[in-house]
TrEMBL record:
Entry similarity comment: Belongs to the sigma-70 factor family. ECF subfamily.
Domain of life: Bacteria
Keyword Transcription: yes
Lineage: Bacteria, Pseudomonadati, Pseudomonadota, Betaproteobacteria, Burkholderiales
Signal sequence, start to end: none
RNA polymerase sigma factor 70 region 4 type domain sequence ranges: 125-177
The keyword Transcription regulation appears for this protein: yes
Protein name: Sigma-70 family RNA polymerase sigma factor
Length: 185
């Protein structure tokens, strides 16, 4: 993610071994190192902050229960991300309700805002609305690739989707976003 370098494999090993050996504070450090990722993944899928908090906790409970099964075949970040994505997708399957985000009201433009600033803010709002209109998985893929600037391979690893499926989601989503933005002018 921008500005944050993921822990190295050696850091992952040390963190996992410390947590598995019951070292005080080790699992809390693991949670702290990965909580932003889990929150991002879950929040982008379920959209409700309260559900996202609960599902984030559930994801870390599963990490705790299954940490002994982690085999270092991928990064710890990827493994935890897949667990979080799986927990959120299962929640959506159980709910089978449309996902709707209730945004906080956007600040009204100040009297001294330039026309360009107002236009940029409106364009940002239209883009956010277009992304929010995507289905949960494409929305997550778009967020990870464009907003979090992750490579396709890492998006695929985090979501459990094949690389080509991620690329297909991106292509279809770009077309939908373009269409949404053109019709919302």
């Amino acid at each position: 993610m921008p500005g944050v370098s993921p822990p190295s494999l050696d850091d992952d090993r040390a963190m996992v071994h410390a947590a598995l050996s019951g070292q005080p504070g080790a699992f809390a450090a693991l949670v702290h190192a990965h909580q932003r990722l889990v929150w991002l993944l879950v929040q982008r899928l379920v959209r409700d902050p309260e559900d996202a908090r609960e599902l984030g906790q559930e994801a870390f409970m599963r990490v705790s229960q299954r940490l002994h099964q982690f085999r270092f075949e991928s990064s710890l970040r990827t493994w935890i991300g897949r667990i979080a994505t799986s927990v959120a997708l299962r929640h959506l399957e159980r709910q089978r309700l449309p996902t709707v985000e209730i945004d906080e009201a956007l600040p009204l433009p100040a009297a001294d805002d330039t026309a360009a600033e107002v236009d940029a803010r409106q364009q940002h709002e239209r883009l956010r609305d277009a992304i929010d209109a995507l289905a949960p998985v494409p929305r997550l893929v778009v967020t990870l690739f464009y907003l979090e600037e992750l490579p396709v391979a890492e998006v695929a690893a985090l979501t459990g989707l094949p690389d080509n499926t991620v690329k297909s989601h991106l292509a279809r989503s770009r077309a939908r976003l373009r269409q949404h933005l053109e019709t919302s002018r």
